[in-house]
Amino acid sequence: MTIPVVDYHCDVLSKMVKDKSISFVDDPMLDVTYKRLLEGGVALQTFAIFLSEERGIPRFEHILDQIDVFTSRVVPVQEGVRWMKWREDAASLEHAVKAAEQHPPQSHALQPWGLLSVEGADGFEGNLFYVKVCYDLGVRFLGITWNHANWAADGVMEKRKGGFTEKGKQLIELCNETGLLLDVSHLSEAGFWELAERSKRPFIASHSNAKAVCPHPRNLNDEQIRAIAAMDGRIGITFVPYFVKEGPGPVVPADVLPHIERMCEQGAGNMLMFGSDFDGIETWIQDLEHPGRYPAFIDLLLTRYPEDLVKGWMSGNALSFLSRHLPAKPV
């Protein structure tokens, strides 16, 4: 069965910006490549702009470097990665996905789309004008922090466990006004609840699992899951092995299922999607090492869950969110 996939998080760009010789077509240094997107039936891949600590103090130019990598080395590859910016783009893909599910194409997969996000506001240097520039350049999601504190808020690993700064509160307002959508993966719990109170728009957790199943700090507790479900946000189940399962030994695809079930128990069954974190990890779930493994994973899901639910998790839930909450294309 053909079920197209939306993957809400990968770190390809931070690898490619460090090494100009890497080709997005099929380079073995990457988990996510153009050929593997086709192989796995990935209709939409979100590309995160992550500023590695290896580059020193995060600067706005570092964000621009990765936007340039996306536009010059990812989008033009092969038949082209289409750049999703507007709700009309999402609605178009949503229609194509439904058609593909009903009448599977015999010769080729859907042409993949790409969506840009920024993981951590550090590189904006506290300058809200830079945030607006990134929106104008086509970035559509912002993960407010990485693990530590920045000028806007505390990350989940920051020991003081604070929320938003005054400038961070202005950032929330700006994002709500422009249509730049917010992502709470990596945000502190205090920041999560402050954002839930302040934001006029629903938000997502692009790559986080259930803390009740695996108690890693980066996972969401039941109250957070229920809050995202109540606002009709979205949660991307991730394939980071140590977010999936504690202890020694290999992590296998079946180990992801308890996270899905826990979130369904909390009322988030229709809000689930996947955010693999491919290219942001150095260990992998066995048989889930890259996008080409998605078809086998879908087969596993179909042995346990109804087809309509699986279709929602793989693409439908993500696309319905985007078709409602991305900004409308200017006339």
Keywords, separated by commas or semicolons:
three-stranded parallel sheet; 331 residues; alpha/beta; Membrane dipeptidase; TIM Barrel; six-stranded parallel sheet
Provide a descriptive summary of the structure in words.
With 331 residues, this protein is of the alpha/beta class. The chain has one domain (5-325): TIM Barrel (Alpha-Beta Barrel). The protein has twelve helices and nine strands. It has helices at residues 12-18, 34-40, 60-74, 87-102, 128-137, 166-178, 189-198, 222-230, 241-244, 257-265, 294-304, 307-325; strands at 5-10, 42-50, 82-83, 113-119, 139-143, 181-183, 204-205, 234-237, 272-274. Strands 1, 2, 3, 4, 5 and 6 form a six-stranded parallel β-sheet that branches. A three-stranded parallel β-sheet has the order 7-8-9. The mean pLDDT is 96.
Write the layout of secondary structure elements.
Blueprint: E1 5-10, H1 12-18, H2 34-40, E2 42-50, H3 60-74, E3 82-83, H4 87-102, E4 113-119, H5 128-137, E5 139-143, H6 166-178, E6 181-183, H7 189-198, E7 204-205, H8 222-230, E8 234-237, H9 241-244, H10 257-265, E9 272-274, H11 294-304, H12 307-325
Helix pairs in contact: 1-3, 4-12, 5-6
Order of helices and strands: EHHEHEHEHEHEHEHEHHEHH
Radius of gyration: 18 Å
Strand content: 5-15%
Count of beta strands: 9
Low-confidence stretches: none
Number of helices: 12
Q: Under the CATH scheme, which class? A: Alpha Beta
CATH superfamily: Metal-dependent hydrolases
What fold name goes in the CATH topology slot?
TIM Barrel
